[in-house]
Amino acid sequence: MSSESQQSAFLDTWTDTSVHMFESVVAANRAALAAFGLDADGTDERETTDRIEADEDLPEWDTETTASAPDDVSVGDRFEFSKTISDGDVREFAAASGDTNPLHLDDEFAEKTRFQGRIAHGTLVGGLISAALARVPGLVIYLSQDLEFHNPVRIGEHLTASCEIIEDLGNNQYRLSTPVHNEDGETVIEGEAVILIDEQPE
Known about the structure:
The protein is an alpha+beta fold. It is 34% helix and 27% strand.
């Protein structure tokens, strides 16, 4: 066997061994991540519902509040909640609500509509307002909500519900503006809500 043939055979063996070793390391890392409930990109691959805890935030949510106690709440206080609307969110909402309109679930159908693609349920998007109001300190009870839908929400859009107290109605009741905006600053929902901040159970 010539020296060139020997070098080529050695190189092939070395390459095969290196590739096998690399693939083994990748597989081992994926297995380790899976053991901790993480996907290969380091994100939590468990169902969102399996990760929910009362009065806790998930890592993929962003929240902001300007009041820290029920007695501090006053006109001008803001409460924000931001998240990306995923395909999973849309499908889970369809299953939970029974709203299986193909506009939300069927790509081929939705492409033929005025929206030229799937959009999120309006009520799912409106749910971000409820999430923002859950950041008001105290036991918050939703009394009413008015909504106007201005723009469709695409799968994968990042949205922020920004609730601001605009009137103290007395008896621990407050009126709030409740717009929802996308990451480009476009308004997708306008509205107002009334909440009651009730006493916490002992």
